[in-house]
Amino acid sequence: MSDLEKIVSDLQKRVASLEQAVFAAPKPSARGLEQKIVEKVQDIGTQDLILIALRQKPKQSKAQIRDVLNDWGKAYGSWFDGGNFSGRLVNKSLVKKDGATDGEDLFSLTKRGEMEADALMSKL
Hints:
- The chain is mainly alpha-helical.
- It contains 6 helices and 2 strands, in the order H-H-H-H-H-E-E-H.
- Strands 1-2 form a two-stranded antiparallel ribbon.
- Helix 3 (46-56) packs across helix 6.
- It starts with a helix and ends with a helix.
- The mean pLDDT is 88.
């Protein structure tokens, strides 16, 4: 192996090591966003939190979204029981059905919903 080949091989190993460290580390912006959400959770509406939750992780069931809200410390009461979810989010073209799993519908944001969620997150 020539000197140049050794140098290239060493550089490839170093780059691979750095990539592994970068991709394995949690994203500071996501952690920072969640911290801001938790700190201000009582001042953020349930509908807005749902949009943010779906922006962070698309294709969630209503139960999964409820779990996220619980993790953030948001009391949502009967918000999911009536027509709030469908009337305020699905019918307004912010959220769409995006498949199903285990008999539960999965939901994701529409482009309009993504833009709304991005605007909400930038204000936090």
